[in-house]
Amino acid sequence: LLGEPSHAGMVDWLKQIRAGLPVPPTAIIMISAHWEESVPTVQAGASPPLLYDYYGFPEETYHLDYAPTGAPILASRVQDLLGANGIKSAKDATRGYDHGVFVPLMFMVPDADIPVIQVSLVKSLDAREHIRLGEALAPLRDEGILIVGSGMQSFHNMRGFSAQGYSELGRTASAAFDAWLLETVRLPQAERDERLASWAQTAPEARKAHPREEHLLPLMVCAGAAGRSNAIVALQTQIMGTTASGYIFTDKPVDADTDAETC
User: Is the whole model's pTM more than 0.85, yes or no?
Assistant: First the structure.
């Protein structure tokens, strides 16, 4: 939105996602890095406002306008699925869309013509708990619902980002962690989920890439929802001197030719 040059590859990818979906989604569930509650909490308002949950940005960023409808009936369906899987949950009818929701959607769905609800992370930040949350949401994929994890899964350490395009910490830690993620998401379900669950103990440069894991956990939810689906590496780029990738889980066969070109 601000025209920062290193974000151009990611922005171009976001703009193409909708056209590449096999069927138009009837609604979108967003898992953002910027909402945590004691239990998974489902946004249930009919017309959620925007939350300008950032500071130090140009004045125009506090007047952005994006207004999809909410989906209270879908919110109830999400709660039913969580309960059926033994997961306690809550609803929040006043919660607005944080920037982890409305910023990517302004590129993905610029006309705001698809209903959107948000599901929170859990304050425990436990990876297995978030994979299990995704598993509970999995039936929604067969109901035409698009589940989107919004974070920075390859790297989110503010000390490693560089407006000048180079930081030794950002360069080395993001590259190592991103390579591990790329290998991990392509594994069969059981092995993939076990590696993701133990990421902090097994991934190279784990805590340099993610001192706190809230920007990684949306991927855990999506992996849980994916089940046996295959992962396509849909984006590989550089953002402010760090390696960044994006993934799409699909039921289509995957080979090297289906992965994205580096941008």
Answer: yes
